[in-house]
Amino acid sequence: MLRDHIRHDLDILFIGFNPSLLSGKTGHHFASPNNRFWKILHEASITPRKYKSEEDYLLPEIGLGLTNIVARPTKAADEITKEEYRVGREILKEKIKMYRPLIACFVGKGVYQQYSLQKDVPWGAQSNQTVPGTTDFVAPSSSGLVRIKMDEIVRIYSELPGLAERLKEHK
């Protein structure tokens, strides 16, 4: 079972679809060598260095957290059932209400579509807050299968530190 790395008042809570089989086996988020999550966070100046998946538990120390909309590991996100999404959506909303991160960053447009039940979703900060006090932010998936150029992915993620700073100023 993959544990969340979450605490109260994080700057950014990163939310994935669900763990990969490798993440489920190792107990670490974004464990696949084909997943670019850790590289993206560093290149977007969200982390001071490139962390390894085995260091995922250190993220809360720097104001970052990790969770998923569905807890069950699968080979691919298309194996997740509608019922798992329905239950996961409610659990995730409760986590966000309880822990109150400044930003809920959805790692993949599909994750946010499942969470918000909205079809047309732009990249970046969303105009509506699903949970009051937390800004929803949609970023591209970090999967190696994503066809968006790495520079564009990093550009979108690089909006997060400035957004977090502005939200702290208005808190």
TrEMBL record:
UniProt GO BP: base-excision repair, AP site formation
InterPro entries in alphabetical order: MUG/TDG, Uracil-DNA_glycosylase-like, Uracil-DNA_glycosylase-like_sf
Sorted UniProt keywords: DNA damage, DNA repair, Hydrolase
GO molecular function terms listed in the Swiss-Prot or TrEMBL record: pyrimidine-specific mismatch base pair DNA N-glycosylase activity; uracil DNA N-glycosylase activity
Pfam families the record matches: UDG
Uracil-DNA glycosylase-like domain mapped to chain residues: 7-149
Protein name as it appears in the record: Mismatch-specific DNA-glycosylase
Organism of derivation: Neobacillus notoginsengisoli
Phylogenetic classification of the source organism: Bacteria, Bacillati, Bacillota, Bacilli, Bacillales
